Amino acid sequence: MIVGGCDVGSATAKAVLMKDGALLSHVIIPSGTRPELAARKAMDEALAKAGLGSIEAVDYIVGTGYGRLKIPFAGENVSEITCHARGAHWMSPAVRTVIDMGGQDCKAISIDDEGNVADFAMNDRCAAGTGRFFEAMARVLDCGFEGLSSLCLQGENPATISSQCSVFAESEVITLLNDGVELADIVAGLHHSIARRIHALARRVGLVEDVCLSGGCAKNEGLARVLEHKWGVSVKTLPRDPQIAGALGAALIAGEKSSAVRRAS
Amino acid sequence: MTGTSFQTFTEAAQGLVNPALQSWKAGGGKVVGYFCSAVPEEILVAADLLSYRMRATGSESTEESDAYFSNINCSFPRHCFNLALIGKFEFLDGVICLNSCDHVRRLYDNWKRYVPTEFVEIMSLPRKTGPDQVAWYREELALLKEKIEKHFGAEITDDRLKGAIRLLNETRSLQRELYELRKRENPPLTGAQALVVMVAGTAMPKEPYNALLRELLDELRQAEGNGGYRARLMVVGGILDDPAWVQVVEDQGGLVVTDATCFGTRTMWKQVDESIGDPLDALARYYVADRPSCPRMYGEQERRSELVRELYSEFDCDGIIGERLMFCDQWLVEHYMLDHDLKEESIPFLKLERDYVTSGTGQLRTRVQAFLEKMGK
């Protein structure tokens, strides 16, 4: 049985295909401005990668992410919170707390031993702790999104940045640059400020080990180390691309739904 | 719902003015707006005034009022004041504010200074709920009564006050009957529709409202009801007057069956005691101590939490959604305390922040959907 998950987020669209419980292929592309086109393109690429001729080969597909209502080929949609929980649990069954950091949202999700959501907390109308925040800072610091992580790891004396608001943090960064503070220390300071924000979110659901990050920002190694330092617990690296956790969760749910339908018929 | 009563209510809830209000004005009647459900409507009704609960329905921006408020002021007074500045409240003959919170208190200062409404007053409601505070608020009610009598040339006798109390108690008991129907397994109206009915009651003269509500109740008693929903929900919060917001919540598949909000049970779950001889005394007791408590009142968190849990089981709910306007200080800590109380009883609870004008519904949809999924619904 072949099933799929498609996660159209604010920044990237992800498609995952699975066969009999194993991962077949996955694709990550920019979302662009048309969610339905991004969904179609991501799924077509995933099909090609898996060596499948057409979408007809897929038994069932579940959609998720901000664009979940606009995915034409999805049989149903499930919130990305439930999907990230399921995807992270499949990749690493011992995980009990998932910090999902996407393009425009940051969520702390506590999950049970079956990968179900026990509780969640989400940032309120705020870009702190999201891809948007890191992108904005990378632009000001001219270091690229990927450069943030290595700079953060080099920072020995993290600068104090008190604002967690992206707009105000940017002003603070500019002040620090003009004061001649080391770039790496500024970047480390930014990560510390975001870590405080994530800490508050995680406190709301309770921080239970294992802890992992998912979503695009999970690839930021520097952030994981800052959080580890703050919490005194290790932040696990997911064994697969953390950015596909949502689409993977959607595919897993598609698998369950599809088997349930088969049993019933 | 097919009857004309619900259409009339919808019209009243969707705009600032409605035909019943317009014909009241056309007949020479006066309309007085009030800003908090602790303002005694009975005194206004006894003076033959149409009591009008302030809302900023239909407001699209705060560009005019932002010159008078900071960006950490609540969006509710900012939208109200914006509408006032662009002349949308010219139908009001008076406005009564209350020190419900600092944001509304300062709205009074701005209103008095910049909006040419003839009668602009502010009342002071105590924070504690003991007998001393009841006596104190009674004085405040007597002062308001005097001011209204003087300004509007009315004579508010005890008999007229008692009549107004009876009339408003009737409204409250009809509204409670409406809520009774929502206890059914298949409630005959959605949460968004119920809010329409409640909001309409704050914008129309009470006699025609009560008559229409009776008609609606007759229709609903026979109605088949809504089935097939994923979960029964309760909403806990403050000035939620926007059925569209409830609609977004319900579009995710849950049905809102009850609430503890300022356009819901807080205004009608209890009656004013008609057996008390002095009507001002009866009103003071009701508004300070007897009606469902609001988070601005001191030392009453346990009582509020208890009522939430009572309503939750009475209406057979599956989960609770807490809504709070961004920057609202009254509800700041309340939802966190409630969260802890509800966790102890394993009652699912979702805290949401919102702007007064419903927008950016993507996040709202995601949270409510995830909340239902988390409940296994």
Number of helices of chain A: 8
CATH architecture of one domain in chain B: 3-Layer(aba) Sandwich
Lateral strand order in the biggest sheet of chain B: 2-1-3-4
* Regions with little confidence, pLDDT below 50 for 5+ residues of chain A: none
Structurally, the number of domains of chain A stands at 2
**What is the CA-atom radius of gyration of chain B, in angstroms?**
20 Å
Taking Cα atoms only, what radius of gyration of chain A do you get, to the nearest Å?
19 Å
- Spatial sequence of strands, sheet with the most strands of chain A: 3-2-1-4-5
Report the CATH C-level class of one domain in chain B.
Answer: Alpha Beta
What would you call the shape of chain B? globular
Q: Identify the overall geometry of chain A.
A: globular
Q: What fraction strand of chain A?
A: 15-25%
Q: Biggest sheet of chain B, in brief?
A: 4 strands, parallel
Q: Which CATH architecture of the largest domain in chain A?
A: 2-Layer Sandwich
The class by helix and strand makeup of chain B works out as: alpha/beta
Biggest beta sheet attributes of chain A: 5 strands, mixed
Strand runs of chain A, count: 10
Q: Helix amount of chain A, in percent? A: 40-55%
Q: What kind of assembly state do the chains in view correspond to? A: heterodimer
Give a structural overview.
The complex is a heterodimer of chains A (265) and B (377). Chain A is an alpha/beta fold and 265 residues long. Chain A has 2 domains: 118 residues, ATPase, nucleotide binding domain (Nucleotidyltransferase, domain 5), CATH 3.30.420.40; 144 residues, Nucleotidyltransferase, domain 5. Helix content of chain A is 43%, strand content 20%. In chain A, the strands form 2 sheets. Chain A has a 5-stranded mixed sheet with strand order 3-2-1-4-5. Chain A has a 5-stranded mixed sheet with strand order 8-7-6-9-10. In chain A, α2 packs across α8, α4 crosses α6 and α6 packs across α7. Chain A is globular and about 70 Å long. The two termini of chain A are 15 Å apart. Chain B is of the alpha/beta class. In chain B, α10 links the parallel β5 and β6. The mean pLDDT of chain B is 96. Chain B is 48% helix and 12% strand. Chain B has a domain of 140 residues: Rossmann fold, CATH 3.40.50. In chain B, the strands form 2 sheets. In chain B, strands 2-1-3-4 form a 4-stranded parallel sheet, with helices on both faces. A 4-stranded parallel sheet of chain B has the order 6-5-7-8, with helices on both faces. Chain B starts with a helix and ends with a helix. At the A-B interface, α2 and β8 of A face α14 of B.
